[in-house]
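Entry for adenosine monophosphate complex. Fields follow.
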Amino acid sequence: MKTEVLAIKDIKKQSDDIARAGKILRGGGLVAFPTETVYGLGADGLDAEACAKIYEAKGRPSDNPLILHVADRAMVDEITREIPDIAEKLLAAFCPGPITLILERKDIVPDRITGGLSTVGVRMPENEVARAMIRAAGVPIAAPSANISGRPSPTTAASVLRDMDGRIPLILDGGPCRFGVESTIVDCTGPVATILRPGAITREMLTEVLGGVKLDPALVGAKVVPKAPGMKYKHYAPNAPMTLLEGGPEKMVPAFRRQVRQLQAEGHRVGVLASHEVCTALQDSVPAPLLADYGAQGDLLTIASRIYELLIAFNDTEADVLLGEGMSDAGLGLAIMNRLHKASGFHSIAI
Ligand code: AMP
Ligand code: MG
């Protein structure tokens, strides 16, 4: 199958292109599309056979459920049984936006996409291209991230093409994603809202709107099965093994110097994913292609938007081990650290 990449610069002028994507989706085909978080791999979410193609293209485990993407509130009601008070508040405060609500589903949602769960994940993306495409399809669109399972999520159309070339007919290119980490997943089916996956809508933002919010125990290191089935899988991993250095930002430069020197003495080619401060200090000891600058320390929006592309880029270098710089888990830091911990298989050194 030949994969076409279609740049969407203006949804009004390109209504024919959007209509074409809608037609492929209604016909049971796959279309990759931009959102404000990462690129999605979409199929008609009410068509079990179309959704089976997503699992096949990604090599995704069949018990890992898909999130349904909707264009408006009417589509939320079409697929969910009831909207509890918690969910009403979150819809009003954050939708459209980078948040997924877990709600009780109607029977119209195929078992195949929820891994047999009685619930469904619902997301209303803010990205204009995404919503125009969903409207054109006229059905909720099931979409996981548009990468081969286990690899980092794509935040550019070029990275989607790298994983999906020859597997899908069409990629809509809407430019780089704004946030760069997947949506916050909030379970709204219990008495207290629970974060199953941290994202750009932070714990602090949720607490402000709801008064209280819990973190799924699996997110804070407890040895329990996470409630979001996908969170138990290896994820976001570059080819070379990565170790995270964790501690105060002021300790990072000396700690990186030490670790780099030691690994290089052992004969390793060390890749570094770190702040501008650390990368600048390592310029003399690490070759430029192996230094991935994720932005200034504390500039969480920039860091979130860059980490996946930087992790992907290491696969084209000679690096055989990677060192990553950790940060505080306040605000968006919780989502970034969740992805870095998974990318490193939870290998960390406290400095
Ligand atoms: P992605 O593959 O990036 O789209 O991630 C989707 C995430 O949402 C995975 O971790 C899924 O396990 C999770 N998810 C989807 N539907 C549900 C659901 N009904 N209940 C809990 N988690 C869900
Ligand atoms: Mg994913």
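NOTE: Residues 4 and 170 are 5 Å apart (CA to CA).
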